[in-house]
Amino acid sequence: PSPSSSTPGTEQREKQYRAHQGSGDHRGGVTGARTYFYTDEAKCDQHMETFLRCIDASSGSSEDGFSAIKLTALARPQFLVRFSEVLLKWRRFFYQMAAEQGQAGRAVLDTKLEVEKLQEALANLNIVSKAESQQWFTGENLDTSGTMDLLDWNSLFDRRSKLSRPLLIPNKKTGQLEPLLSRFSEEEELQMKRVLQRMDVLAKRAMEKGVRLMVDAEQSYFQPAISRLTVETQRCFNRSQPIIYNTYQCYLKEAYNNVTGDVELSRREGWHFGTKLVRGAYMEQERERAAQMGYEDPINPTYEKTNEMYHRCLDYVLEEIKHSRKASVMVASHNEDTVKFTLRRMMELGIHPSDKKVCFGQLLGMCDQITFPLGE
């Protein structure tokens, strides 16, 4: 379904990123007490030290090694839920504006807002004056056509700190304006800084040691924040080679939109796109939570749909490797058809194993009948 505000699923999608008891925080009954903030920070630092040792171990045991990290170990999970919530609100605002310009239902990168109409809408909603919105849409944020797509829109979000007052956006349900960052406290801003610093430390060590750093995907209510923080790190460290790998779960309905959006961003900004593709690991938990909280199940309805999504995302990345040579993929799959599909497409596209642009990941001892012939 289209993510525009005119579709019935939109309000439900929002609920997906809301914290509720039992999600986002590992301790029951704890609601942001200040004392926990510092113990959490100390724990995150300890986890970072453990990850640094893993990077060193990977470097010592193989050339072009991998090390995997989990962001819920480097940031307070409750913060990741809240940050995801804010990112989703911002994206939803874009689709709401697109629907008003008659663009509901278009593919993600084909949805382009006309800036003049957008400025009028923002002024009419009393969000910002015409003069203020002109500052928003200076040359560097726009292509020459006077339109902006979701990637341009996201870059506006990065400049939010330069706004003189809190950014208010319309709540579709109530019709009232509400602050986008109403949930963000100074402590949470500090957590944002800290988690980026920790990722920075890990990325630097990985670069020094010639190790590729894979950021694991987690539950969908953390994932927008995890992906966003990973892309920030890719922008800095994937300039000349793919050091940082983002993970995409192909059982999610949004997988293709997420992959294509991030590939396009890497093209525009000139960095190397590194990805691990997985089918996904949290289906039961996701479905249970969706039913419990009354939002649309974020996962593809059938196994076949997920296979289709996996091959569609993989094909898109393989095409990108062929055209730009600035992408790399780990096919993390125990599925024989997927492995054969990848090998066939590599051959058709002229991607050779020695190019080291495609690698495969399987768990030790699981599906050895695929792993060993593949190794040969």
- Helix content range of the residues, please? 40-55%
What is the residue-mean pLDDT, rounded to a whole number? 83
User: pLDDT under 50 segments (min length 5)?
Assistant: 1-8, 21-35
> Strand pairing plus helix content: what structural class?
alpha/beta
Tell me what you see in this structure.
- Residues 108-135 form a coiled coil.
- Residues 1-10 have a biased composition (Polar residues).
- By secondary structure, the protein is an alpha/beta fold.
- It folds into 2 domains: 39-77 and 185-367, TIM Barrel (Alpha-Beta Barrel); 85-181, Recoverin, domain 1.
- Helix content is 52%, strand content 11%.
- The protein contains 13 helices and 10 strands.
- It has helices at 9-15, 34-61, 77-100, 115-124, 130-136, 150-158, 186-209, 223-237, 255-269, 283-293, 303-324, 336-349, 368-375, and strands at 66-69, 113-114, 147-148, 168-170, 177-179, 212-215, 244-249, 273-278, 327-332, 358-361.
- The strands form 3 sheets. Strands 1-6-7-8-9-10 form a 6-stranded parallel sheet. It has a two-stranded antiparallel sheet with strand order 2-3. The chain has a two-stranded antiparallel ribbon with strand order 4-5.
- α9 links the parallel β7 and β8.
- The protein is globular and about 65 Å long.
- The termini are far apart.
- Mean pLDDT is 83; it is low at 1-8 and 21-35.
